[in-house]
Amino acid sequence: QVQLVESGGGLVQAGGSLRLSCAASGIIFSMYTMGWYRQAPGKQRELVASITSGGITNYADSVKGRFTISRGNVKNTVYLQMNSLKSEDTAIYYCNANWPTPAAVPYWGQGTQVTVSS
Predict the structure, then answer these.
(1) Considering only CA atoms, which of 62, 79, 60 is closest in space to residue 71?
(2) Tell me: the pLDDT tens digits for 66-93?
(3) What are phi and psi of 73, to 5 degrees?
(4) What is the mean pLDDT of residues 26-41?
(5) Which of 19, 21, 53, 98 is spaced 20 to 30 A from 27 at the CA atom?
């Protein structure tokens, strides 16, 4: 059974840092594109960052220079290092795993709350 389990969320002051982790099981992890999405209250879910099996990364303009996505294939884990956090980063953050084909159905974690005090 496929599972994605996020951890590392919490409360942090503006300007602080957090590191999110997502542990995957039930998939051939090294073959999947992994990503982080977030959804703030009253807003639509948006892509934060993604990383392909080959290590190619993509970031939302709002987090470039502040966030870094990485993966550890031996541990089947994807990370999101978040620095210089702002109040507008407050959201539920979701881990995503996607087979890189047009018809692929993605897998999702349960989400972890990140709250940045302003």
Answers:
(1) 79
(2) 999 999 978 899 999 999 999 999 999 9
(3) -70, -30
(4) 93
(5) 19
Non-local (6+) Cβ contacts of 34 within 8 A are 22, 24, 50, 51, 69, 71, 78, 95, 96, 97, 98
Q: Which residue has the tokens 């090294």?
A: 30
Neighbouring-strand partners of residue 39: 92
Give the count of beta carbons closer than 10 Å to the beta carbon of residue 97.
22
Q: Is pLDDT above 90 for 5?
A: yes
Q: State the SS3 of the chain.
A: CCEEEEECCEEEECCCCEEEEEEEECCCHHHCEEEEEEECCCCCCEEEEEECCCCCEEECCCCCCCEEEEEECCCCEEEEEECCCCHHHCEEEEEEEECCCCCCCCEECCCEEEEEEC
Nearest to 63 by CA among 92, 38, 41, 94: 38
Fill in the amino acid letter for 25: S
**What's the CA angle centered on 88, arms 53 and 112, to 5 degrees?**
55
